[in-house]
């Protein structure tokens, strides 16, 4: 009971902070925070797959690309308003994920990871192959299109004038909030239990009446739909897509973000929403400020490294991930969940 | 205590507001002591050779700063890595404009990269000057994009000159073209076709700028039986083309290699048999060319590079960057004591610069509001025994 109260209060606080943040930060920071929202969506989606059904995916960058290109092609070639492309992107990526889930049924663990990584590796080439549709390596430019609600300048929403970046921020985080609550409603009952049962022992789950094929492909579909929405929002906010917008490394980055967030944190727990925030912030800010971070380290330890050298962000990113994994193997979410459980148990005992 | 700090904050805020109101309204990026300009360059990745363009420009700005700056202000040139990837150019440029509040975007490298940010910069009314790309559209479409301008000769004009050269030297040539399949390569190809008049290209093969190798395209072009080979590539791809020619034993009568792929440093890498006799255009003084050893402009270049960018002493890319930085300084000076974005744009579209020390002697950097191709004079050069040799007279390169 106490734990529930904690979780609800925590969620309200996080929502309030997210809603008010643009008042305190610069316009550009709002744009960066919108990217954090994009990765939060992708991480929550990956948690549905990996945390709940126990399937590993190293190919979520490709599902993001499917979503992003769905949006870009609809906007640039078919004149669809950007907002309407988001549910379509979710649908297209979700169906692709569901279909991919069928062959994935025969694989598990490392084998599945390898096959999904195969999609991530081959997808950029596929995008270049169909250059007529995707614009090839040149990509598609969405900036300044009439289909862009933000139009690169500002938007009037409910009587308020929002700058383009604040608009992108609220759009992304509203979608993230809706999707999070949606996933929680979907997975708190029977479906969630079935998935977790499958993850722990598919034989036991099947003998208890859970149909593994249905639930495993369903998890793939939901997870891919989340990734598709993330890709769609990424395309809308960057207003440009090309194959390098969704590089092979994106799939790994998202998985690393999910691991730092804490895989397997049950939706609704404190860790399930604070964790993805931490993982996504790490992805966005560490990459952007790795050079500054290196300069800061240099003040203490003279490494004689060139902070401007290429590859610095990747190395720093890797180091931080190693440190996080050594200190908190369950991720930020896992630590928070353990903490709230302990505190609420203590409080309950006091009351008794 | 809390009231006191609140009062202090209020006073500070009022003081700041008073200062802001009191000073003349300047555009972002310019203050009493400095001018902040920004851009992107491929510091990493496939095209990282082009990083020299940004570093060479940076070195020249540092030299100017050490000698008093521009009207008393120092130039702060902030360039970010985009890995030659337009989607990263978009994000980095947004960061420069919205977070760092640069006065203008300068010297951003790459055709696709410049095109990806052009709408954004024009909508935000931020000058996008002296882009390190010869895309014809950068100079031609000023009606739609008044804030944008390139620097080097347009690729269409360059291609046209190659076409005319081929027609003059080998009227019956059978021509094969390797080109980067984007606006950059297609611009060169279209220019070449124009220069050839009615003559046809025998074979052409495009490659995607994110491809890994062009050997198969070269093999395909050789199989066409062509005796003239035009390489419209960039960075490692032009190298791969020469290596592939050597491996296949292909010896065309004429080999053309476009300007931004023809730095001496690159040309020296493939086997000499494949590069010997290659023809290209030139407009900067190539620091690796011994012909300039006694030239005053090149000596200045070497002094600047030795002090601020030692790796650039022999780099043609650094020379290209320094030449556009020289013109940028010129434009900033002409933009007045208190430059605004509008006055900078006016200055940049009314250039008449003689004696840029890093360009070939005789080249006049000239623009008008309706003619926005700053460098449009050049010469031809031929690769012989490890060096470029300039030949012929100054040619006009207008698309």
Characterization of the model:
The complex is a heterodimer of chains A (352) and B (399). Chain A is mainly alpha-helical and 352 residues long. Chain A is built from 14 helices and four strands. Chain A is globular and about 60 Å long. The two termini of chain A are 13 Å apart. Chain B is of the alpha/beta class. In chain B, the strands form four sheets. Chain B has a five-stranded parallel β-sheet, with helices on both faces. Chain B has a four-stranded parallel β-sheet with strand order 7-6-8-9, with helices on both faces. In chain B, helix 2 crosses helix 12 (296-308), helix 6 runs parallel beside helix 7 and helix 8 packs across helix 9. Chain B is globular. Residues 10-23 of chain B have low confidence and may be disordered.
Provide the descriptors you would attach to this structure in a database record:
heterodimer; A: 352 residues; mainly alpha; two-stranded antiparallel ribbon; 4 strands; 3% strand; B: alpha/beta; 5-stranded parallel β-sheet; 4-stranded parallel β-sheet; 14 helices; globular
Total helices of chain A: the number is 14
List unreliable stretches of 5+ residues of chain A. none
Overall average pLDDT of chain A: 87
Residue fraction in strands of chain A: under 5%
Tally of DSSP helical segments of chain B = 14
Please outline the helices and strands.
The complex is a heterodimer of chains A (about 350) and B (about 400).
Chain A: H1 2-24, H2 27-53, H3 60-78, H4 82-104, H5 109-129, H6 131-134, E1 140-141, E2 154-157, E3 160-163, H7 164-187, H8 190-200, H9 202-207, H10 212-238, E4 240-241, H11 248-261, H12 270-300, H13 312-327, H14 331-351
Antiparallel strand pairs in A: 1-4, 2-3
Helix pairs in contact in A: 1-7, 1-14, 2-7, 2-10, 2-11, 2-12, 3-4, 3-5, 3-10, 4-10, 7-10, 8-10, 11-12, 11-14, 12-13, 12-14
Chain B: H1 2-22, E1 34-41, H2 51-66, E2 74-81, H3 86-99, E3 104-106, H4 111-123, E4 128-131, H5 136-140, E5 148-150, H6 155-169, E6 175-180, H7 183-195, E7 203-207, H8 215-223, E8 228-232, H9 236-248, E9 254-257, H10 264-267, H11 272-275, E10 279-282, H12 296-308, H13 316-334, H14 341-348, E11 352-354, E12 364-366, E13 377-384, E14 387-396
Parallel strand pairs in B: 1-2, 1-3, 3-4, 4-5, 6-7, 6-8, 8-9
Antiparallel strand pairs in B: 10-13, 11-12, 13-14
């Amino acid at each position: 009971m106490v734990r529930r109260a904690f979780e609800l209060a925590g969620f309200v606080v996080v929502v309030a902070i997210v809603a008010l943040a643009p008042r305190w930060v610069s316009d550009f920071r709002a744009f960066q925070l919108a990217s954090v929202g994009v990765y939060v969506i992708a991480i929550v989606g990956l948690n549905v797959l990996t945390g709940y059904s126990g399937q590993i995916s190293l190919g979520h960058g490709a599902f993001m690309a499917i979503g992003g290109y769905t949006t870009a092609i609809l906007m640039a070639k078919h004149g669809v308003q950007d907002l309407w492309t988001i549910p379509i992107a979710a649908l297209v990526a979700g169906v692709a994920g569901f279909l991919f889930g069928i062959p994935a049924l025969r694989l598990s663990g490392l084998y599945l990871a390898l096959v999904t990584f195969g999609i991530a590796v081959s997808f950029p080439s596929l995008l270049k192959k169909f250059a007529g549709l995707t614009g090839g390596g040149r990509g598609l430019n969405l900036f300044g299109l009439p289909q862009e609600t933000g139009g690169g300048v500002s938007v009037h929403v409910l009587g308020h004038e929002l700058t383009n970046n604040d608009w992108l921020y609220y759009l992304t985080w509203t979608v993230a909030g809706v999707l999070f609550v949606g996933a929680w409603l979907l997975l708190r009952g029977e479906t969630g239990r079935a998935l977790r049962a499958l993850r722990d022992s598919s034989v036991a789950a099947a003998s208890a009446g859970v149909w593994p094929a249905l639930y495993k492909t369903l998890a793939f579909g939901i997870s891919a739909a989340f990734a598709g929405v993330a890709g769609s929002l990424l395309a809308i906010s960057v207003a440009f897509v090309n194959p390098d917008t969704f590089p092979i490394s994106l799939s790994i980055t998202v998985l690393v973000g999910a691991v730092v967030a804490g895989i397997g944190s049950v939706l609704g727990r404190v860790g399930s929403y604070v964790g993805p925030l931490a993982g996504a912030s790490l992805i966005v800010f560490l990459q952007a400020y790795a050079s500054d971070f290196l300069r800061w380290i240099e003040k203490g330890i003279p490494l004689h490294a060139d902070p401007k050298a290429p590859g610095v962000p990747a190395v720093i990113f890797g180091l931080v991930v190693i440190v996080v994994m050594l200190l908190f193997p369950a991720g930020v979410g896992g630590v928070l969940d353990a903490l709230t459980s302990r505190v609420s148990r203590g409080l309950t005992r006091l009351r008794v | 205590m809390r009231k006191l700090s609140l009062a202090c904050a209020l006073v500070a805020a009022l003081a700041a507001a008073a200062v802001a109101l009191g000073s003349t309204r300047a555009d972002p990026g310019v203050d009493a002591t400095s001018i902040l300009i920004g851009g992107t360059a491929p510091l990493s990745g496939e095209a990282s050779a082009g990083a020299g363009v940004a570093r060479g420009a940076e070195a020249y700005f540092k030299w100017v700063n050490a000698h008093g700056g521009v009207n008393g202000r120092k130039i702060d040139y902030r360039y970010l890595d985009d890995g030659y990837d337009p989607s990263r150019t978009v994000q980095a440029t947004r960061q420069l404009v919205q977070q760092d509040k640069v006065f203008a975007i300068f010297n951003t490298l790459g055709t696709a990269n410049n095109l990806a940010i052009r709408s954004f910069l024009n909508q935000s009314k931020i000058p996008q000057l002296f882009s390190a790309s010869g895309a014809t559209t950068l100079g031609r479409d000023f009606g739609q994009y008044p804030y944008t301008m390139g620097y080097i000769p347009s690729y269409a004009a360059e291609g046209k000159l190659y076409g005319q050269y081929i027609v003059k030297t080998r009227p019956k040539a059978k021509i094969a073209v390797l080109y980067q399949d984007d606006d950059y390569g297609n611009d060169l190809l279209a220019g070449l076709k124009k220069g050839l008049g009615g003559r046809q290209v025998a074979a052409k093969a495009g490659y995607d700028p994110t491809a890994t190798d062009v050997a198969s395209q070269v093999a395909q072009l050789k199989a066409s039986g062509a005796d003239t080979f035009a390489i419209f590539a960039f960075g490692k791809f032009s190298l791969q083309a020469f290596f592939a020619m050597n491996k296949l034993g292909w010896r065309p009568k004429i080999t053309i290699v476009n300007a931004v792929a023809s730095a001496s440093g690159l040309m020296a890498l493939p086997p000499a048999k494949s590069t010997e006799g290659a023809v290209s255009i030139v407009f900067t003084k190539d620091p690796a060319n011994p012909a300039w050893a006694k030239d005053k402009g090149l000596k200045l270049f070497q002094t600047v590079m030795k002090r601020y960018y030692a790796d650039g002493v022999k780099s043609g890319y650094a020379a290209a960057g320094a030449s556009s930085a020289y013109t940028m300084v010129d434009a900033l000076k002409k933009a007045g004591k208190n430059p605004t974005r509008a006055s900078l744009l006016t200055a940049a579209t009314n250039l008449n610069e003689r004696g840029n020390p890093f360009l070939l002697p005789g080249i006049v950097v000239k623009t008008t509001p309706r003619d926005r191709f700053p460098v449009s004079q050049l010469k031809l050069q031929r690769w012989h025994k490890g060096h470029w040799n300039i030949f012929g007279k100054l040619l006009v390169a207008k698309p």
